[in-house]
Amino acid sequence: MSGSAQGRAAGIEVRSIDYVPLNERHGKLWHLGPLWFMSNAQIATLAVGLISITGGGNLIWSLLAIVAGTVLGTFFMAFHSAQGPQLGLPQMIQSRPQFGYVGALLVWLFAYVQYAGFNVFNSILAADALHTTLHGGVKPWVLAVTVVALVIALVGYDIIHKAERILTYVFLVVFGIFTVGILLTLHYPAGSFDLGAFKWTPFLAQFGVVAGYQISWAIYVSDYSRYLPPDVTVRKTFY
């Protein structure tokens, strides 16, 4: 057995930025659902969803801005994800034909700055949440969540998909309970569902942030679909 086959059998991603051969393709198409659901259903997304409300918008127009921004942003993200099984390459490598070998470094730099910021933002939010619920201090929790994330990232593709599936099931149960509780007990402020209370600034701010949040995934989404066999088809991967 080759080293790459041994690595994949052990669950460790060994291809890095390399092309994934057809004999190493594995996984199921539906695994993309929990992966991207859980990538978005997290604390940072909750913070992003408050932009309109904190800017003076009401609930109904905030929800419409979020839905519209999500649909637009996901449209572009899904097209890039559909390239993964067909090309078997990471998104950043795919950008070389469009930008050139050197020009693609600009895309890499943009991605590096963006996701360094995401990691800092998400780690602090996670640590704050854990400190609030379990105590222990923010800094130790930052270290703990960073170590867990680092281990998952080093092992790679398979464990990332598995972790996101487990987290999806937990999320649906926990936040399903929260949602039912909120719907039964929450008192909405006056005008929350007034369609006549439209305000351009909070609506466009919420729409732009949500659309940008989704589009920001587009520069590396095919990294998490490129191990799928190409016969899953572009249409099914897109959906």
From TrEMBL:
Q: Tell me where it resides.
A: Membrane
Q: What is its main location?
A: membrane
Name the membrane topology term: Multi-pass membrane protein
Question: Where exactly are the transmembrane stretches of this chain?
Answer: 35-53, 59-79, 99-121, 141-160, 167-188, 200-220
**Top-level taxon:** Bacteria
Q: Which UniProt keywords apply?
A: Membrane, Transmembrane, Transmembrane helix, Transport
Asked whether the keyword Transmembrane is assigned, the reply is yes
Keyword set includes Transmembrane: yes
Spell out the Pfam families in the cross-references: Transp_cyt_pur
**Sorted alphabetically, which InterPro entries does this protein's record hold?**
Pur-cyt_permease (IPR001248), Pur-cyt_permease_Fcy2/21/22 (IPR026030)
Regarding protein family, the annotation reads: Belongs to the purine-cytosine permease (2.A.39) family.
The molecule here is called Cytosine permease
Which organism is the protein's source? Streptomyces graminearus
